[in-house]
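How it folds:
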Amino acid sequence: SGGRGNPAEGQRKDPTREAAHPMHITTSDGVRLHVEEAGHGAPVVFVHEFAGDCRSYEPQVRFFARRYRCITFNARGYPPSDVPASPEAYSQDRARDDIRDVLDQLGIQGAHVVGISMGGFATLHFGLAYPHRARSLVIAGVGYGAPAERRAQFAEECETAARRFETLPAAEAAASYGSGPARVQYANKDPRGYAEFVRQLAEHDPRGAANTLRGVQKRRPSVFDLAEEMKAMAVPSLVMTGDEDDPCLAASLFMKRCLPASGLVVLPCTGHTLNLEEPAAFNAAIADFLAAVELGRWPRRDPRSLTGTILGTT
């Protein structure tokens, strides 16, 4: 199932990692995933974006581990998880099932699942495939490559990014990917945090990054093709996006309209890396959501709000 890349060998010792009880689990197709957990209570699984890893959720784990059992894991292709050599070992379905396998290996029947971007897509698909395993879903930063007229462009940009990770020095490839139009907001607000984000991205395995771009990102189905499946899913859901993350705005509104038990949070003047860019607002929104779900007070959409009239008169 592949080896580990050199960048992981250079990662610094971090006491927060040691305090997070790291372990490995083996997926149903034989790939070892690095898993960390902290805290006690109802389980919350955090699923990272393409440019992140377990460390990306540190502001969330430190906050939510006070009341919840927080679980993070590095996706396949992200050391110290295994790095399968073939892009065929990476797919949207596989990313979905890796969440299931983490729960199975930890003996957890159901969990709240929080995902951003690539992790948000996996979270949505997990809810669609295994609604009985999802206590709730937070689907954040989802929409890249979704519009039909942008599918070819997105696939081309994924391939270009994959080649950059394969051919450029790690720091140069990370700086290129990390300077996208929905990342500059983070750089402007928090240069120190943004520098850490890019530095950690440069530590990723280049083969794992390229395979993820080709196997997961480039080939995943469009959110706009999942309307009927979403309308049938009653799992409590919170859709989140930044208002300057343009590729996610229409998709987030679409998901809100399709998912019958969903709410929509739009963070102002915010880009794609929303959990790191605005950690206080991100954590507060999710804390309120989880509390409502745990109390059985998260509502389904009232059908009277869907009559199609404006003032309610006919």
Remarks:
- The mean pLDDT is 93.
- The first strand starts at residue 22 and ends at 26.
- DSSP finds 14 helices and eight strands in the chain.
- Residues 151-167 form the longest helix (17 residues).
